[in-house]
Design goal:
single chain, 189 residues, mainly alpha, 7 helices
Length: 189
């Protein structure tokens, strides 16, 4: 006997924990918490600002991913908030290096490429907790700068993909209207 029940039209989305960008922002969040509480002076408002910017980068990826089921617009907006928060955090790390007369490792610096490769590798996920005690402030700041640059690149790409999905599938209202019209016309798929 055929099932005449209409199929759900909202696709369950989410799955943000599998995204590489989410995993990278989780590392940034953990390192930033340690960095801010270790290298900034107690009572410095920058501690809370850096920790909150790192947290916002990570949390908005999660929230946007979960909101995607009913609002592609919200998903795109929150993904962009995540990117903006990480950009703010990037500036904080750059300021720290400049204000403490430390070197920001840019192209041409002998540690720049090895840091980029390490930050891109799978090893970082397991090893970063041990780095917190091994690396100094300059090294940790440069690691975070590298990770933030990688995360914002991935977030720009994710936003492009989300825009394409919106154009192809429409928003939830369009999906609801299609589902309702199909139901009225006797189509259950």
């Amino acid at each position: 006997m055929p099932n005449n029940e209409p199929k759900p039209f909202l696709k369950p989305l989410g799955g943000y924990r599998k995204l590489r960008v989410y995993k990278v922002t989780e590392i940034v969040c953990d390192i930033t918490y340690h960095f801010a509480h270790t290298y900034l002076c107690k009572g410095d408002r920058t501690i809370d600002q850096m920790v909150q910017a790192a947290r916002s980068g990570k949390q908005n990826i999660a929230e946007g991913s979960e909101a995607a089921t009913t609002s592609r617009e919200t998903e795109i907006k929150l993904t962009n908030v995540a990117k903006a928060s990480l950009e703010e955090l990037l500036v904080d790390y750059e300021d720290y290096l400049r204000q403490h007369n430390l070197t920001q490792w840019k192209s041409g610096h002998p540690r720049y490429e090895p840091m980029r490769e390490y930050a891109r590798s799978e090893k970082i996920y397991a090893e970063y907790p041990t780095l917190l005690q091994k690396l100094n402030d300059e090294e940790l700041a440069n690691l975070c700068i590298t990770l933030i640059n990688q995360a914002t690149y991935m977030l720009r790409r994710l936003i492009e993909k989300q825009q394409q999905q919106f154009l192809q599938e429409g928003g939830v209202r369009e999906q609801m209207t299609r589902a309702r019209l199909n139901y009225r016309n006797g189509k259950t798929n």
